[in-house]
């Protein structure tokens, strides 16, 4: 990578020098410190002891509206960046899901597949044209996928403290990272100024390897020197340095990052436009679960140096990702045996009533979710049917099971009892089952789906059946399978999903 040209004072060195000389002539040096600008160093300050005249610093982060824009920001707008924590063991599935739920609720993060846009063939399966939709990233380059990245960064959530999760495969954030500098004068910390850079950050999962690739791009001409004296703004602050890299919060025996830190002066960061990237790997040997599932945290780590600077490193907020070695994902003859995905998201499937390919199935699910007591089979107690998407993970979701497993087979048996008025819905109980329908043109559709733990045989949840056109039933089934693949829904209770019916 070619080293950026150092251009102080935003490319106007002569003008900068003239301004600086005028500043000296006019007595515009370091401003007098107010009571709010001084603090006595101590154990609670998080700084190492420093001799008089030395700079010390506090790494800080800014998110929110306008982080890309140049503006003088008050010190109170910044929040202190957390110090790096000791490496820990991988998260348990229960702990990871709770953390992910909390973060997803805060950010309103939802991963979904708009099934109305997925092309199907005559058999109701995803057609070859669907290869442009929902396929997981595999061969990642030096830059993140342009279309998805731009779509993500254009959303309001990209500037939030949690960032924006476009889907399970891509997360992004706009943020400003910097350092607040203090000088030790007569044993006290005297605030000098804040230097910062605006960054675009992206994390992209992988559908064939247990790796998450993190990207970072400094925004051109975005460096700001808030509160520095005029002299230091041009002759001190631009020469101070900041480094950054990506890292995993868990121990090296389960998760590790590749690549070293990238360091530039603030003057150089101002003209550095290339995407930087680091890979974070998950070691399947650290997991004993059937699909070798592991949950991890990742973050950017950064700090400063130069000019006699003394100070600690810091990190951005931890983000959660999940890696697996589930060997049951394939599409168009291609296997996707391993993967890592962004996990701070509420995964949900969408069906549209306006989509004529699945309209009857969508109506059935809406009735089952909203008015379960108006559905067949008729039960003697109020019915409770789970899986409705409401934007919260607090509601009971659905968990996927193998299509050829014991639970799916039992779900099919109970569905058939209700559809054909047999078993517990036969004989003198036949009035509870689905009324006769034309089996030559209609199928008996069930919700929750046969491929879920909450299906018709569930002892804890009720179900609904309805006759729908057989073509629509096949199409809805094909779109469900496509959703399982595109959102990487695993066979376990730690990967619930929800169903949303739109008009």
From TrEMBL:
Any single Pfam family the record assigns to this protein: DNase_NucA_NucB
Chain spans, region Disordered: 65-110, 132-158, 376-401
Signal sequence region: 1-35
Signal found in the keyword field: yes
Superkingdom assignment: Bacteria
Domain Deoxyribonuclease NucA/NucB: 433-484
InterPro entries reported for this sequence: DNase_NucA_NucB
Keywords attached to this entry: Signal
Comp. bias regions, Basic and acidic residues: 96-108, 391-401
Name the record gives this protein: NucA/NucB deoxyribonuclease domain-containing protein
Provenance organism: Streptomyces gilvifuscus
């Amino acid at each position: 990578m070619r080293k950026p040209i150092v251009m102080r004072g935003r490319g106007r060195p002569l003008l900068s020098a003239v301004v600086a000389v005028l500043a000296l002539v006019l007595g515009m040096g370091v401003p007098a410190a107010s009571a709010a600008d001084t603090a006595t160093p101590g154990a609670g300050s998080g700084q190492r002891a420093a001799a008089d005249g030395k700079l010390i610093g506090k790494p800080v982060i800014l998110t929110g509206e306008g982080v890309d824009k140049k503006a003088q920001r008050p010190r109170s707008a910044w929040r202190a960046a957390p110090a790096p924590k000791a490496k820990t063991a991988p998260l348990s599935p229960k702990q990871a899901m709770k953390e992910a739920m909390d973060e997803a609720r805060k950010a309103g993060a939802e991963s979904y597949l708009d099934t109305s846009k997925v092309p199907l063939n005559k058999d109701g399966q995803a057609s070859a044209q669907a290869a442009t939709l929902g396929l997981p990233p595999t061969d990642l380059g030096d830059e993140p996928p342009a279309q998805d990245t731009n779509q993500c960064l254009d959303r309001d959530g990209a500037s939030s403290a949690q960032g924006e999760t476009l889907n399970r495969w891509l997360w992004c954030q706009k943020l400003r990272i910097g350092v607040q500098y203090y000088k030790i004068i007569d044993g006290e910390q005297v605030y000098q100024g804040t230097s910062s850079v605006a960054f675009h950050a992206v994390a992209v999962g992988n559908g064939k390897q247990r790796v998450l690739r993190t990207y970072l791009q400094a925004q051109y001409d975005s460096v700001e020197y808030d509160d520095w004296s005029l002299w230091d703004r041009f002759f001190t602050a631009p020469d101070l340095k900041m480094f950054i890299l990506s890292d995993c919060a868990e121990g090296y025996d389960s998760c590790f990052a590749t690549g070293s830190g990238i360091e530039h002066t603030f003057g150089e960061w101002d003209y550095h436009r290339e995407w930087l990237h680091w890979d974070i790997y998950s070691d399947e040997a650290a997991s004993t679960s059937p699909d070798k599932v592991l949950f991890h945290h990742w973050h950017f780590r950064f700090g400063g140096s130069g000019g006699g600077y003394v100070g600690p490193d810091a990190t951005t907020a931890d983000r959660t990702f999940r890696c697996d070695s589930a060997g049951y994902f394939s599409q168009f003859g291609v296997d996707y045996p391993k993967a890592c995905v962004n996990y701070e998201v509420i995964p949900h499937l969408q069906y549209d009533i306006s989509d004529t390919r699945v309209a009857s199935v969508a109506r059935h699910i809406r009735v089952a979710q909203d008015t379960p007591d108006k559905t067949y089979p008729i039960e003697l107690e109020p019915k409770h049917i789970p899986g409705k998407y409401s934007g919260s993970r607090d509601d009971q979701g659905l968990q996927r099971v193998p299509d050829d497993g014991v639970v799916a087979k039992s779900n099919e048996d109970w569905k058939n009892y209700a559809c054909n008025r047999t078993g517990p819905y036969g004989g003198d109980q036949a009035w509870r089952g689905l009324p006769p329908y034309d089996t030559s043109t209609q199928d008996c559709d069930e919700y929750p789906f046969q491929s879920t733990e909450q299906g018709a045989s569930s002892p804890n949840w009720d179900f609904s059946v309805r006759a729908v056109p057989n073509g629509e039933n096949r199409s809805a089934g094909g779109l469900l399978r496509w959703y399982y693949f595109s959102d990487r829904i695993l066979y376990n209770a730690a990967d619930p999903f929800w169903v949303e019916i739109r008009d």
